[in-house]
Amino acid sequence: MVRTSITLVFLFCFLACSDRNNTIEKPKSVPSEAEIREGLLERNRRLLAEEMELIRSFVDRRGWKMDTTTTGLYYSVLKPGNGNAARLLDRVSVRYTLGLLDGTTCYSSDSTGNLELIIGQSDEPSGLQEGLLRMKEGEEAMLIVPSYLAFGVSGDGVCIPPGSSIIYQLTLEKIREQ
């Protein structure tokens, strides 16, 4: 009797632990570093394409005529300037309004004063600096800056959310050469 009980317990354990019905899940393979890298690149390509389509659609819905640089910056001259053209390392004074595509105004020189910066040596977004290099003193322009030329995946931590495209309305008030 004891022997039969031990045999039954052993048989029960053996059958319960066996993989007869393929019910035990096999461990999944871990992706290689190259596969992870390619997956991230593909995701970034898709996000970039979506953001550029969002900007194109935004501009088209408003019927705006804007030029695009090779970096993806959209710009339009609203009022031509008659002064000197801005150059790298010039100190400039800019009257501005910065907003989001949803119409939210985030910052404005009306509340913070004119923006003062040295083109190429500033912490300001690279898209703003690129746009300023296309302007002359006295010129008014509008820039639409994709997130990767603006505040990137982190936003500014105050008003601009992560991954946001931004709009600048600018007047290049003054250029002082370095």
What topology emerges from the helices and strands here?
Layout (H helix, E strand, L loop, with lengths): L1 H16 L15 H30 L4 E2 L5 E6 L11 E10 L4 E4 H4 L2 E4 L7 H7 L7 E6 L20 E11 L2
Antiparallel strand pairs: 1-2, 2-6, 3-4, 3-5, 3-7, 6-7
Structure report:
With 178 residues, the protein is α+β, with helices and mostly antiparallel strands. The chain has a domain at 77-178: Chitinase A, domain 3. The protein has four helices and seven strands. Strands 1, 2, 3, 4, 5, 6 and 7 form a seven-stranded antiparallel β-sheet that branches. The model has no long low-confidence stretch (mean pLDDT 89).
CATH topological fold name of the domain at 77-178: Chitinase A, domain 3
Which blocks of ≥5 consecutive residues have pLDDT under 50? none
Count of DSSP H/I helices: 4
Multimer state = single chain
